[in-house]
Amino acid sequence: MDGLFCGIDIGSTNVKVAIVDAGGATLAAEARPTPRIMAEGAVETDAAYLTSVLEDMIVRAWRRLSTPRRILAISAAGVGEDGLMVDGDIMPVGYSIPWFDRRAEAEAALLAEHHSLEGRTGIAIDPTRTAAKWLWSARHRPQEFARGRWWISLTDYPLAKWAHRPFFSESLAVRSGCYDISRRAFLPELLEASRAPSLADVALAGSRIGTVGGQCSLVLRGAVAPGAALIAGGHDHPVAAALIRAGAPDAIVDSLGTAELLHAETGTCVQHHPPLVRSTALLAPAGEACLYVFELASQLRAVPGPALRDLLDRGWPEHAFSGREQAAALIGGEARPEALTGALQSGEPGTVWQLLEAVTFAARRIVEEMKRAGIPAGAFYTTGGWSRSDAFVRLRANVLGQTIHRVNEPELVALGAAFLAARGSGHPIARTLDTALFPPDRAAAEIHEARYRDAKEPISRLLGLSHPPRS
Questions:
Q1: Which CATH superfamily hosts domain 248-298+340-463?
Q2: Which of the residues 88, 98, 257, 376 could staple to 250 if both were Cys, CB 3.0 to 4.6 A apart?
Q3: For the Carbohydrate kinase FGGY N-terminal domain, which residue ranges apply (predicted)?
């Protein structure tokens, strides 16, 4: 098969596209800041303009290839809760509110009264959830609901527009807080409580949504073949993790970006263990996923950038650690003792390295809870910007006591979407990811093990995990 496949990553900060060949090699990629506008004093997104930007990016990337081959299939992954109302022609009738917007605080508090259903949805309703924003929009922008025919996820919008068919990727439906992950259907009582608008049919990742029409800009400019397949993608983290699981089905995937997100799947049901989040398995018709989000960047915000970069480059000797009792205090955020905050703000290397150890203790504690919930003890993979530090990954291997596989692919979400495009169009790609192995050092692991035993209980309380497992 001598065609090309395109993956799109619609992120909170940047949008990216990647074009791969039938062998899985990334031939071209483009990235640019996610386009935003100011509406009513807040940041929002114009989905039509975003789609135009993506079309330009795809065409630019394709033209650099200087090849007669065209793109045969496209898929997209990205942000989970952003979305907008569209009319019958799939044209926006309003803007998309980003997931991180907190204007729906009151609505989230009202919907939280339905917490008894959390065991079925797998996720608590907070101001970032789609359900809270539906209720806010119904109260404050009723004209959009009145004019619109469907609500569409921002991540799904470009493909829906090109296919002229609305759909709702399942892993994005889960992020609404209204989706029963066992029955794999929306819960009517939660839709009613959130005053949800008309929703498009749910589509499984990898399923065919439609084809690109001959009058689409992508076809007219030569980059995409007429009739190219449009394949449902979904939430960015599961799509990236699916690419890793193609070669390691039981992998636990640790994405070290602005937020750290630990993600794993199993072929059976996951026990309900708040604050762990449960979701549907991305590509399987049965089974569940388990994940946890930890605000990594906010924990490190107190440290001056140059001091942190220097330490991530050179590391710090494990035998130099002291003050094992302060691990939980270090990740206490605003509740940190003044002396520790001052040491971090001055870039004192020993204290900064202990903070890096403490956030890794948190990751270990979360992984333990995931295993208690029913996740297999598989290989541990790490991705994302923070994972580029060899010293940090070595520290994490020593704290976790197991080998870490670092994925060296720079644009894993866009690449994962491209692989979904190939798979969904009937041309699956088999490719071994570029990884580096970081085995634990036995002596260093023993030092961290003793420190972790002392830190486990206070860190458990800080994370909302009230029953730490026995060592």
A1: ATPase, nucleotide binding domain (3.30.420.40)
A2: 376
A3: 6-238
